[in-house]
Amino acid sequence: MVRPIKSHSSQIRTKAACNCGRKQADREDPFSHKAANYEFYQSLEHSCCEKLEHYTFPVFMSSTADAQAGHIGTTREEVTHHPLARKESGKLDSVTAGISNLSLALSLGQSGASDVFAHTSHSLNQDMSDSTHTSAVDLGETGHAGADHKATDRQVSTTEYLPGMVHSNGPVGLLPKFSSWSLCCLGKANSYSPTQGLDQPGFMHGSNYLLPWDMTVKADKEKWPTVNETSGKKGKNKRGQKSIQETEINLRLYLGCEYECPRGHRFFCSGPDKLLKVPGTGPPKDNANKLLNSDMPLYFPCHCRSSKGYMAQLMRVFMTTPEGPVQAKLSPRIQPAPMPCPIFLPTTDGPIKLPAGGLWVLRLPYIYLGEDGPYMIPTDQQHLNSCRLLKGLFGIAQPEQ
After folding, report:
1. pLDDT score for 69
2. What does the DSSP 8-state code read for residue 239?
3. Which residue among 5, 37, 257, 398 is least packed, with the fewest CB closer than 10 Å?
4. CA distance 39 to 218
5. Strand stretches in 261-310, DSSP E
6. How many whole angstroms from its chain centre is CA 120?
């Protein structure tokens, strides 16, 4: 008698939220990046997120029944030529070879690795940059606040797929069978209440608030008559051109970087070294300047009452998009280990342009899988500081005419 083959199980369960964050469920310890980044979230789509507006990331579309995994010809040594690689050096001690060791729950605090979790959150900012943010934004035809990338014109394969995840060192022209990321719209931008914060399960008290990003932009008053304006002036009337009445418009967006620990506790951070905590009712006194101008840690100590010292992982990014003369953009780039290592991103087609007037949530991968295996949370403090979301995530630009 042949016994049926059962999937691997570590008998460990954690608690995690769905793509949009409105529902929590128990998660079996995953042993593949598909189970970690796709199947768990898809299992909750029907009961929660299915009817929301989704952004579709590019995935492999087969033109044959004999589609095969593409050959990964790029070597890890080539990553050292990446600009970021010249800023840092270090051995990839955090890389665990083989999918069979893909147990993130163990590394986040359910094993003896908890010694490193007792460090203070202040040290997480050791290698993170910070600078002063300018709230007045003057947009040119192509200018925007934040990082930008030019889409690469290339032919995408319909016979070979990318067996792993999209990253900066991946082969050109191959797409994964599924996306390890998710982007959906929770509703209208004004559905977010600055005084109440996000109404979702798992958030620690006072840590469920998005932070305001205020800006002043110049725009044609005739095109945006209903948007809050501060002052107006008439542009010079050149020969053959219509006189344009230019006005300065105040806009406010709300941003948030959410962390989630294995016990299902969730919280926002107001900067790379500070957990957001609002006593009583909101809105918070902090603004989004540090989120805009700093790298954010991929892992942050959870303040839950546990002797194991659980580590929370950056899992979601929230952004409200304004109704106004700007277009909001997201450019997520994750460095999951010390350099040299690839930079993970949802697509190589450039920044993600978001429709106006919405509350959007980007769910990040649970596991980052490179060519040599998954990048696990480092047990060395110095290497832990190198795991980060690179600054330049949030951006704005003039909408295309």
Report:
1. 87
2. T
3. 5
4. 45
5. 266-271, 274-275, 296-297, 299-301
6. 24
Cα–Cα distance for residue pair 392/289, rounded to 1 Å: 12
pLDDT of residue 326: 87
Q: Going by C-beta distance under 8 Å and a sequence separation of 6 or more, which residues neighbour residue 399?
A: 325, 326, 327, 356
Q: Where are the beta strands (DSSP E) in 44-176?
A: 53-54, 68-69, 144-145, 160-161
Q: What is the pLDDT of residue 3?
A: 57
Spatial contact of 390 and 216, defined as CB atoms under 8 Å apart: no
Report which DSSP code applies to 191.
G
* Neighbour order of strands in the sheet with 327-330: 144-145, 394-397, 327-330, 352-353
CB 374 within 8 A of CB 381: no
Q: Do the beta carbons of residue 382 and residue 286 sit within 8 Å?
A: no
The list of the chain residues with pLDDT below 50 reads 74-102, 105-106, 110-153, 230-237
Cα atoms in the 13 Å half-sphere on the side-chain side of 396: 26
Distance separating alpha carbons of residues 205 and 280, to the nearest angstrom: 9
Count of CB atoms within 10 A of residue 90's CB?
Answer: 16
Which residues are 188's β-sheet partners? 358
Q: Please, which residues bridge with residue 24 across strands? A: 17
- Determine contact, residues 186/355, Cβ cutoff 8 Å: no
User: Residue 130 carries which side chain, given as an amino acid letter?
Assistant: D
Question: Rounded to a whole number, what is the distance in angstroms from the first to the last CA of the chain?
Answer: 68
Q: Is 290 helix (H, G, I), strand (E, B) or coil?
A: helix
